[in-house]
Specification:
Blueprint (H helix, E strand, L loop, with lengths): L18 H30 L22 H4 L36 E6 L1 H4 L8 H12 L6 E4 L7 H6 L7 H14 L4 E6 L2 H8 L7 H25 L2 E6 L7 H4 L1 H7 L5 H25 L3 E3 L21 H15 L4
Parallel strand pairs: 1-2, 1-3, 3-4, 4-5
Helix pairs in contact: 4-12, 6-8, 8-11
Length: about 350
């Protein structure tokens, strides 16, 4: 609305008066001008304040509970902030949920599910407790009484067999999914460990002829795909996943002792032992990359001395003995400590 103040005219002839009357009219005119300006400001203020009053509250931020992840013991999740519209008051807060995150210290029982080959099964000591049973004891002694372990490790299995199964047994992945789902639904946190790849390497080189570079490349991508599939399935089921990096098994006495190698893997030549070492390091890189892709922690055994020391290995030269499994467990514990 536009406001306009007008000068009062003489009531007698419509023209400005003279003398004191003129001075009086000037004073009245100034008063009218001031009053009109004030009224205009008031009307303008009213026009701009007739809408909804400014909000004094904010919509609640969406919250989520993410999985662990974390790297060698540090798996970190990712928070996608996005660069678009942050939403409005008409948009309800997100109700989406993720798998339960890592259990807090003193939060009660944890279910540990271990997947892998003979190193996970505990081959090399009697009884075959391996690191899974020891890790369960460690959880119970560190604020999680009543924790349990489900050891799915099978001797001789490869990364493919962990998924598909072998010898009439179904795969460890579907078996783990059936264990994880109900536990998570009941509020029990689940940590799933995966240490696999030793047999992939044994079988890659224990064949007729020399393993070619093309075969090694194909094997590496096959290994990567199996790890990705396994980790994603375990996370989707609701577990906090921890990935293990295998040792460089070309340094185990089973390979460094020619007689032991020829008796156990006669088709692996001395030259292929060197190839195996290079491939083991590439496997380690793949594990780290898969772990980063999925924000899960890594436990690294690549250069672990226990696998090179006969005093810490079974007489077969390829599996830890009781002392070896004690040390293997300690390495797991260091990597998993941030999760509990």
């Amino acid at each position: 609305m536009k406001c306009r103040a007008t000068m009062p005219r003489s009531p007698r002839d419509g023209r400005p008066g003279g003398g004191w009357r003129w001075l009086h009219l000037i004073g009245v005119g100034l008063l009218v001008l001031l009053t009109g300006a004030a009224g205009c400001a008031k009307d303008t203020s009213s026009a701009t304040s007739t809408g909804a009053p400014p909000s004094t509250t904010q919509a609640p931020a969406a919250t989520s509970s993410g999985g662990a992840g974390s790297g060698s013991g540090s798996g970190t999740g990712s928070n996608d902030s996005g660069s678009g519209d942050s939403g409005s008051a008409d948009t309800p807060p997100s109700t989406a949920t993720k798998a339960p995150g890592p259990p807090a210290k003193g939060s009660g029982a944890i279910m540990l599910v271990t997947l892998g080959d003979s190193l996970t099964a505990g081959q090399g000591e009697e009884p075959e407790r391996g690191y899974p049973e020891r890790l369960k004891d460690w959880l119970e002694a560190n604020g999680h009484p009543g924790s349990t372990v489900q050891n799915l490790g099978r001797s001789g299995w490869t990364s493919q067999q962990v998924i598909d199964g072998a010898d009439g047994e179904r795969g460890q992945v579907p078996a783990a999914e059936e264990l994880i789902g109900p536990a998570v639904s009941e509020g029990t946190p689940v940590i799933a460990t995966l240490l696999i790849g030793s047999n992939d390497l044994w079988y890659l080189y224990n064949n007729d002829g020399t393993t070619t570079a093309d075969e090694e490349r194909a094997d590496l991508e096959h290994y990567r795909g199996n790890l990705q599939k396994t980790v994603r399935a375990l996370k989707a089921a609701g577990a906090t996943v921890v990935l293990g990096i295998n040792d460089d098994q070309s340094y185990r006495p089973l390979m460094t002792d020619p007689t032991m190698r020829e008796n156990t893997f006669p088709s692996i030549s001395p030259g292929e032992v060197a190839q195996m070492s290079a491939q083991a390091k590439k496997y380690a890189t793949v594990v780290r990359e898969v772990a980063a892709d999925n924000s899960v922690p890594v436990v690294d055994f690549l250069e672990a001395p226990l696998f090179r020391d006969p005093a810490r290995l079974n007489e077969d030269g390829g599996h830890p003995n009781t002392r070896g499994y004690d040390e293997m467990t300690e390495i797991w514990e260091r990597g998993m400590q941030p999760l509990i």
